[in-house]
């Protein structure tokens, strides 16, 4: 009788395991189809992107507001199209890549603001300084299992200790970061969102 009970318990547990895993949407971000760019208003064009970074989009339920978006950028891979500008941006006056190799954004929640728009407050860290910032996102491909997540976040560089300038170039304090992330659901059910 005890053996029969244990066998039934094993079958019951096995039948529940896939069900619980299947109830959470699992997404994969493809960096090859995605970009993280920056732009600073200046007397000479100052814009570019980062060549190495990764992002994760995870959920604890099918509710979109249970999601978490984390982005980790290799600061030394900055590419503005100019070696001189890149060297300055990597220096201790700006990204300080030797001491702080990573630029990160870790969301604290996801707030749906429209049918396909979201505010994502989180902690932004650059050159070892962390402050709350908000990434504003627009999602395309809702309900298809894959799509683009495009967003913008702006911050004041001086609040993060980047007080210097670049020789012969006048640059603004406001830095705009633009993300274009391609994500695909690889398992689990679709994410549910509010109707507007």
TrEMBL record:
A Pfam family annotated for this UniProt entry: YceI
SMART domains: YceI
Cleaved signal peptide residues: 1-22
Source domain of life: Bacteria
Residues annotated as domain Lipid/polyisoprenoid-binding YceI-like: 26-184
This protein's UniProt keywords: Signal
Protein name per UniProt: Polyisoprenoid-binding protein YceI
């Amino acid at each position: 009788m005890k053996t029969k009970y244990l066998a039934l318990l094993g079958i019951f547990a096995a039948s529940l395991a896939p069900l619980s895993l299947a109830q959470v949407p699992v997404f994969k971000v493809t960096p090859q189809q995605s970009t993280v760019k920056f732009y600073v208003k200046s007397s000479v064009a100052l814009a570019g992107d980062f060549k190495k970074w990764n992002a994760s989009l995870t959920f604890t339920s099918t509710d979109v507001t249970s999601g978490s978006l984390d982005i980790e950028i290799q600061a030394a891979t900055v590419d503005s199209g100019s070696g001189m500008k890149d060297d300055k941006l990597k220096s201790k006056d700006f990204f300080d890549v030797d001491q702080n190799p990573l630029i990160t954004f870790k969301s604290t929640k996801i707030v749906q603001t429209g049918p396909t728009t979201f505010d994502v407050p989180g902690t932004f860290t650059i050159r070892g300084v962390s402050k709350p910032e908000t990434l504003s996102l627009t999602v395309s491909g809702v309900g298809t299992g894959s799509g683009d997540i495009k967003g913008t976040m702006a911050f004041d560089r001086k609040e993060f200790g980047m007080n210097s300038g670049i020789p012969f170039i006048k640059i603004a304090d406001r830095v705009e970061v633009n993300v274009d992330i391609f994500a695909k659901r690889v398992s689990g059910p679709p994410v549910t969102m509010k109707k507007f």
